[in-house]
Design a protein that fits this description.
CATH topology of the largest domain: TIM Barrel
Radius of gyration: 21 Å
Shape: globular
Largest sheet: 8 strands, mixed
Strand content: 15-25%
Number of domains: 2
Number of helices: 14
Distance between the termini: 14 Å
Helix content: 25-40%
CATH class of the largest domain: Alpha Beta
Structural class: alpha/beta
Amino acid sequence: MSIFVKGGRIIDPHQGTDYIGDLWLQDGIVQSLDEHMDVPLQAHVIDANGLVVCPGFIDVHCHLREPGDEDKETIATGTAAAARGGFTTVCAMPNTRPATDSSDMVFFVLGKSRDEAVVKVLPIACVTKGRDGKELIDMEEIAKAGAIGFSDDGSPVADDVLMHQALSKAATLGLPVINHCENPEISNGGVMNDGAVAVSLDLKGWSALAEEIMVARDIAMAETTGGPLHLAHISTAGSVELVRRAKKRGVSVTAEATPHHLTITEDWAMPRPGQQKPYNTNAKVNPPLRTQQDVNAVVQGLADGVIDCIATDHAPHTSADKDRTFEEAAFGISGFETALGSLLSLVHNGYLDMVTLVERLTVGPARVLNRPDLCPATLKLGSPADVTIFDPNSEWVVNAEAFVSKGKNTPLDGTTLKGRIVATVLEGNLVYESEATRID
């Protein structure tokens, strides 16, 4: 397919470029970049006037649910939603049924993705067998099968010896250990942030210390072993400070933050207008939404580069999973299709500049994965034509029922966002396009 993107704001943090120009994609690669060029014959033309054109977004943390929970999401539906969110590469977490703890399961994810995925899927394997925290998987064998990192995801690796062993092995493989930072003894069955909102709703609180103590332990082990550590969805001011200090010491640690931990607070768990329940279970997420002070610290960490990238932690659930008491409801937010609109509020309100936001969605996650062969995150000539095009000023009202994802669980339903994806290109092929962009 030949695609000509005309007159867009081309931002490529990898090359340090930001200018108005044209982009030509053909044969799956970037063929030409220029301030003005003639339209190639028979090209599909996208009018990008007023739009941002950048490398395809990369998500290092999402849940596609297949195999085992296809009622919540499948590789096909999840990646279709990812394409609508501007993501050209997503990393699938291993908390499937069965868990991704063997070469066969890695092959299953890769094979299913090859046949049905709309965007590129990179499998993350478990750290321990069955994610039960008792025995390490064969990390070397599973890396050879195609896993790009290791995580027990919602089940933190609490055993100190196992975490030390995993990071030591990861140091030789060059692949990150991605830990869900939670000390279960401290979180102790909490369902939302330990604070005023939990008190007002009479719900069991979840202290920030549960995250911060695990962050501190993991950093200490990464410093000792030299193993690449990636901290999933950090959410507290204390965690940001711990990562900041670790990076100054040269520790091999990276971190991610989610759109929801960057833009909304614990107050969103309060009931929405017209709701009969005394709370909003769509705002129940792990780790919990925190205070405005925590949000401000996480945003500042993202702006400073202490937090390397943004990851959606896309966690789709059925309505039955959420239509319960707050204690019984599942943790998680369906995040692919609202990610950009949420994040652009940080730009529109002056907390981030546009180039930094694009960097944290492209080069940042690529650096975490350290696999330029799989996700180069650049528009450099000759590079794979993975491209995202978005309108930073398009306002729209979130309608969860219109999501492509099976997961309609979002606290943003009915809110107005400013900024929307208009086209997503994977290896030179349009995998999503808004009709408003086409002029040929």
